[in-house]
Design brief:
heterodimer, A: alpha/beta, Rossmann fold, 2 domains, three-stranded antiparallel β-sheet, globular, disordered N terminus, B: mainly alpha, 9 helices
Chain lengths: 243, 262
């Protein structure tokens, strides 16, 4: 079932009780969740970069999964590019997610693939591009994210910054209009964090950044705060109005 | 007393929930097959080839050793006794029924569970704990397509192929024992074995290859992908995957024997 979008924002959380969101494994058994108040509402307007930070008990770690439909909101709505992904059929969910760039917490790079193969994976699996075109696209991403010297190494052979760059490269493989980044700057220098943010934003247009970006995590580096259009703090499942 | 019953009830409910989740996982894995995208097939085929290399090719020395030693010992210890009572023809029956039909498939499956089933659980559990499975779903790749189906088909093909290899080596090992100890000629030995081999034996061996391969592909994958909390759960998942696979393989073997003899 696809509901019509009540708002024009590429990403909108509408009255979602974050405390009742439960992660489910492929085996079908729910993981334990935290008790968090709510509900949570937020619009991420087109061509803006929005950050939501909060501690572990705030529910901030569920936002990325909700935006991608990896978790289902028990109440309220999460509209992503005008669609409630979690309410689509499984294969439609997977297809729809290719429209959204996603950098999960911890990078989530496949450890048995090189960085180049990791970036190539979504293109090879989810597109009908010719191999030559895929290689061209991967080369551009590798060069853009300054990974050329480590592209043929596996994640374990590289440092945290290189892995994060590769994970972002993979998230940008389909050149999505919306990008969701979970804890993208943890452990990075301000310079590296700034470069990654610029790559995620995809350059500037008259309306703002080319892509719409949602950043979630425990904190945002001080030097990046002026490069984010809206910075929010989440406290026990609600946006802190005083922030 | 009530507490005791509640404990039993709780454990039983959890067991049924697990069996139900395993059944759902199996149906979803097979149900995902038609939706494997054309582009994804090439990637999945590469993963499948890797799985075949690991599960079948690299297990060949182990299977040859197991089969050769088992058949040599079995025939060597029985052929002289059977010869004494003029029943040397029975080694054909022994070879076909005991080794080719029953022990061959069972030992092959046990060896593959120990070798590859544990590896599949550990690998998929690590994939889950490191967030790789979630990342795959997040970028629109079905983990059933990329992780489960190649392992499932890899196990079915590997176990079936290795069972045939086990049986061939067993027949050769049995011949060596019969020739060295009882001085039996090649044509006579082969004649005795082939006279006892029926179409039903071949069909049953193929059926076991398919079923045991499915078990080794499904249960370790399910346990690996069911890990929730963290790395400390990986060894527990490996144990559950191994014990579950062993149990189901032995139960299936018993059911098949019962069905054939009943």
């Amino acid at each position: 079932m696809t509901a019509a979008a009540p708002a024009q924002a590429p990403l909108a959380f509408i009255e979602v009780p974050l405390g009742r969101v439960r992660r489910t494994t492929l085996g079908g058994l729910p993981a334990p969740g935290a008790e968090i108040e709510g509900p949570f509402s937020l619009d991420v307007a087109a061509h803006t970069t929005v950050s939501v930070v909060g501690d572990e008990a705030s529910g901030v770690d569920t936002l990325g999964g909700l935006a991608l439909g990896l978790e289902r909101a028990p109440a309220g709505q999460v509209m992503t590019l005008g669609t409630e992904i979690a309410k689509l059929a499984r294969m439609a969910q997977l297809a729809f997610r290719r429209k959204v760039g996603y950098l999960p917490a911890g990078d989530g790079l496949m450890q048995n693939l090189t960085l180049r193969e990791n970036i190539r994976l979504p293109l090879r699996f989810g597109s009908n591009f010719r191999p030559k075109d895929i290689e061209g696209r991967v080369d551009v991403i590798v060069a853009q994210l300054r990974l050329t010297h480590v592209a043929d190494l596996r994640p374990a052979q590289t440092n945290a910054e290189e892995r994060r760059r590769a994970a972002l490269g993979r998230a940008l493989a389909f050149d999505p209009e919306l990008v969701v980044l979970e804890e993208p700057f943890d452990g990075l220098t301000d310079r590296a964090a700034g470069e990654l943010l610029e790559a995620a934003r995809g350059g500037e247009t008259a309306a703002g950044s080319r892509r719409t970006v949602l950043i979630t995590g425990a904190s945002l580096p001080a030097l990046l705060r002026h490069r984010v259009d809206h910075a929010h703090r989440l406290v026990r499942g609600r946006l802190d109005k005083g922030h | 007393m009530l507490e005791f019953l509640a404990t039993i009830g709780h454990g039983t409910a959890r067991w049924f929930a697990r069996v139900g989740a395993l059944a759902r996982f199996t149906f979803q894995a097979f149900g995902s097959l038609p939706s494997l995208p054309g582009a994804g097939r090439r990637v999945a085929a590469r993963v499948l080839l890797n799985q075949l290399r690991f599960t079948a090719l690299q297990a060949v020395p182990l299977i040859v050793l197991l089969s050769g030693v088992l058949s040599y010992l079995t025939i060597a210890t029985t052929v002289t006794q059977l010869d004494k009572v003029g029943a040397s023809e029975l080694i054909g029956k022994l070879m076909v029924v005991a080794i080719v039909r029953e022990l061959g498939p069972l030992l092959t499956a046990v060896a593959i569970v120990g070798r590859s089933g544990t590896a599949i659980t550990a690998e998929l559990a690590t994939n889950t704990v490191l967030g790789e499975v979630r990342a795959l779903e997040g970028m629109g790749i079905d983990p059933y397509h990329y992780l489960v189906l190649p392992r499932l088909f890899g196990c079915v093909v590997s176990v079936s192929t290795l069972m045939v290899l086990f049986d061939v080596v067993a027949v050769v090992g049995g011949f060596l024992a019969a020739a060295i100890i009882a001085g039996m000629s090649g044509p006579r030995y082969l004649g005795i074995v082939l006279a006892n081999l029926t179409t039903q034996d071949v069909v049953l061996t193929c059926l076991k290859g398919l079923l045991f391969g499915l078990v080794i592909g499904i249960i370790p994958s399910y346990e690996g992908l069911s890990v929730r909390r963290g790395p400390t759960e990986i060894p527990q998942a490996v144990i559950r995957g191994t014990v579950g696979s062993f149990a189901l393989i032995f139960v299936l073997a018993a059911i098949i024997v019962g069905a054939v003899q009943g």
